Amino acid sequence: MLATLVLALTSSATGDAFLEWGWRVPFLLSAVVVAVGLYLRTRVSEARSSRPLASAARCTPVCPSRSS
User: Positive or negative, the Cα torsion across 3, 5, 11, 14?
Assistant: First the structure.
């Protein structure tokens, strides 16, 4: 839905208007998307079912030693 709005705004701009401000619209909106993503990443806790998986992944060695 947001992409449709951006497309409508940028396609309705004439050549000069697009060169002045139209190209900035997607970049400004991407800043909003990044801000929302950072908020969600820092404020929302993980689900209870994924917590044991995350702790097990931290304890498992990346390269298990070979037994000779």
Answer: negative
Enumerate residues 6+ apart whose C-beta is below 8 A from 48.
none
CB 10 within 8 A of CB 25: yes
Residue tagged 């993503």 (tokens):
37
pTM metric for this prediction: 0.49
Q: Which residues, at least 6 apart from 54, have a Cβ–Cβ distance to it below 8 Å? A: 46
Cα–Cα distance measured from residue 18 to residue 13, given in angstroms and rounded to the nearest whole number: 5
Distance CA 11, CA 1 (A): 15
The better pLDDT of the pair 7, 31 is held by 31
Residue keyed to tokens 């701009």: 13
pLDDT score of 34 more than 80: yes
